[in-house]
Amino acid sequence: MNTDIQEIISKTGTERNRLLPVMQEVISRNNYLSETAMRDIAKAFDISAAEVYGVATFYSFIDVSRLGRNVIRICKTISCDLKGKTDIINAIEKHLRIKLGETTPDQKFTFLQTNCIGWCHQSPAMIINDKVYTELTPEKAIVALEEWE
Amino acid sequence: MDNRKINDIEKYKKRVHLMFSELDIKAALREINALAPELIITELITSGLRGRGGAGFPTGKKWEMVSEAEGTEKYIVCNADEGEPGTFKDREILQKQAAKVLLGMTACSKAVGARKGFIYLRGEYSYMRKDLSAQIEAFHKLLNDFKIDFSIELRMGSGAYVCGEETSLLESLEGRRGEARNKPPYPVTEGFMGKPTVVNNVETLVYAVYIILEGTDSFIQMGTKSSRGAKVFCVSGDTPVPGIYELELGMKLSDFVDLFGDDDTKAVQVGGVSGYCVPRKNFSKTIIGFEGVPTGGSMMLFNSSRSMYNVLHDYLEFFSEESCGQCTPCRIGCQQLLKGIEQVKRGTKHSSYLDNLREIAETMSIASKCGLGQSVAHPFISTTDYFKEEIIY
Ligand SMILES: Cc1cc2nc3c(=O)[nH]c(=O)nc-3n(C[C@H](O)[C@H](O)[C@H](O)COP(=O)(O)O)c2cc1C
Ligand code: SF4
Ligand code: FES
């Protein structure tokens, strides 16, 4: 078993209701849940790998395919739409030379959309990993990208 | 920000400051700990407090049901999933007054006889996790000082709007796909791990603390008969003063628009994407509250530069993406409504097709399994009622 997962489970235990916290911890370390990770988790929890996959794929923040080191999630919902999220998306796409849904060839960024992230009064807004960026302009968005390795 | 507007809001007779006021947490905990469980419940029932998460169930009644439910293993869940578009108050409350929320959970645990509580915080708010965990830890020390046998665990969501629905939330807490359960049974009898469970919104828990400490009288003086007390509103969209404002319930929407609008407001979406669209001509006859149009806090203003077709299209995309897909009316209905208005707009379907779509929406209200699918008709019917031309042409 992967040592990361062993270490995580040694803290959380393997009661069924700990499944999500375990997955979330793997995600916070690796950004995605690999097939091996899902198999290891299944074994530890004594449930089928299909069950783990089923739970994982329900949640939009638990990815089962590989993402870049940093994940950008820009809000696409109503307030951010009214306040110009399209301009921000265009600026980021142009800067990173990828489209929404794609990962840069150097694996540095994956660019995704998400629904309302709770900053509608300071829209447009986005999250990079856990960090929130609000009242974005195309320029501010590009500066934000530069913070990440 | 527009200072003149801010001034008007601050001077408005229904503007209040309870949620974010200072509180001596230790003294409050001492006071709550000395109260009899029955007394806490009676006070809450008398106060008329109704849930602030959207559905508006009487809070005292909910606590009473769980206190009377069979068994000794009971749970408290603080719903901090806050996924309704246009809602951002629970984040602010947890950021600025987390101790009050923890106090509310403790009062609830005492009232119903629970020893364990969870806060279910949406994944989008992960940045708060460290601070909140530290506050919980400090609070546990305080509980320990008072020898109160109650502990609180922070759990995170992972990006699913439907997990704010209480039974989906419980499924998620149990480590499963966040698919809503059939109701009944309700969480008050079969909640977390099948045990009686109180699920309350963040804001509800803080008002419960206010009522328990200050008594019911001052709470009853605010609001109206069906909508007692105050509420934290989240103002966004076309407004010069976007932000978070605590106001008494029961105000007229026209007063609200006078305070928060930009002099060109053509519609207000009350209650978020799953709420209602109110057009200008109805502002003066619409009450914000349970007797009129209820809201979990979300108030989105649209001015005349906005296309209500685009607005409705946004909502329907939201629902299509967030539907958990478990039941057919909602899974298929959301997609059909979205596709349908696109076809009407393009002219590949006759405008009378809107009537068919409205029938689908009505069917969804009756046949969907949970509140997500059931409430799609609210924005769909209200927006197509009042802005039919904009949807078609
Ligand atoms: C799709 C959907 C999403 C919901 N999201 C939330 C939410 O994010 N926060 C919340 O407190 N209640 C939410 N609710 C309402 C909860 O099911 C439940 O009624 C509420 O948490 C009860 O707490 P209250 O009585 O204090 O309002 C949602 C309901 C539905 C149908
Ligand atoms: S109404 Fe929609 S969200 Fe609710 S259970 Fe059915 S498919 Fe899932
Ligand atoms: S709509 Fe973008 S943060 Fe709410």
Strand arrangement in the largest pleated sheet of chain B: 6-5-9-7-8
Strand/helix succession of chain B = HHHHEHEHEHEHHEEHEEEHHHHHH
CATH homologous superfamily (4th level) name of the largest domain in chain A: Glutaredoxin
| Overall average pLDDT of chain A | 96
CATH topology of the largest domain in chain A: Glutaredoxin
CATH superfamily of the largest domain in chain B: NADH-ubiquinone oxidoreductase 51kDa subunit
Provide a short characterization of the protein structure.
The complex is a heterodimer of chains A (149) and B (393). With 149 residues, chain A is an alpha+beta fold.
Features:
heterodimer, A: 149 residues, alpha+beta, Glutaredoxin, 2 domains, 4-stranded mixed beta sheet, 4 strands, B: 393 residues, alpha/beta, Rossmann fold, de novo design (two linked rop proteins), 5-stranded mixed beta sheet, 16 helices, 9 strands, globular, binds iron/sulfur cluster
Topology:
The complex is a heterodimer of chains A (149) and B (393).
Chain A lengths: L2 H10 L6 H12 L4 H11 L3 H8 L13 E6 L2 H5 L2 H12 L12 E6 L11 E3 L2 E3 L4 H8 L4
Chain B lengths: L2 H9 L13 H9 L3 H11 L11 H10 L6 E6 L8 H24 L3 E6 L7 H17 L5 E6 L9 H8 L23 E5 H13 L1 H5 L9 E8 L5 E6 L4 H8 L4 E6 L5 E4 L18 E6 L4 H15 L5 H19 L6 H15 L3 H5 L1 H10 L1 H5 L1
The site of FE2/S2 (inorganic) cluster has 12 residues of chain A, from helix 5.
What does this structure look like?
The complex is a heterodimer of chains A (149) and B (393). Helices cover 44% and strands 12% of the residues of chain A. Chain A has helices spanning 3-12, 19-30, 35-45, 49-56, 78-82, 85-96, 138-145; strands at residues 70-75, 109-114, 126-128, 131-133. The longest helix of chain A is centred in the first third of the chain and has 12 residues, at 19-30. The relative contact order of chain A is 0.13. In chain A, strand 3 and strand 4 form a beta hairpin. With 393 residues, chain B is of the alpha/beta class. Chain B folds into two domains: 17-220, Rossmann fold (3-Layer(aba) Sandwich), CATH 3.40.50.11540; 230-392, NADH-ubiquinone oxidoreductase 51kDa subunit, iron-sulphur binding domain (de novo design (two linked rop proteins), Up-down Bundle). Chain B is built from 16 helices and nine strands. Chain B has helices at 3-11, 25-33, 37-47, 59-68, 89-112, 129-145, 166-173, 202-214, 216-220, 253-260, 308-322, 328-346, 353-367, 371-375, 377-386, 388-392, and strands at residues 75-80, 116-121, 151-156, 197-201, 230-237, 243-248, 265-270, 276-279, 298-303. In chain B, helix 2 (25-33) packs parallel to helix 5 and helix 5 (89-112) crosses helix 8 (202-214). Chain B is globular, with a radius of gyration of 21 Å. Chain B starts with a helix and ends with a helix. The chains are: A alpha+beta (149), B alpha/beta (393). Chains A and B meet through helix 2 and helix 5 of A and strand 5 and helix 11 of B. Bound molecules: flavin mononucleotide, iron/sulfur cluster (SF4) and FE2/S2 (inorganic) cluster (FES).
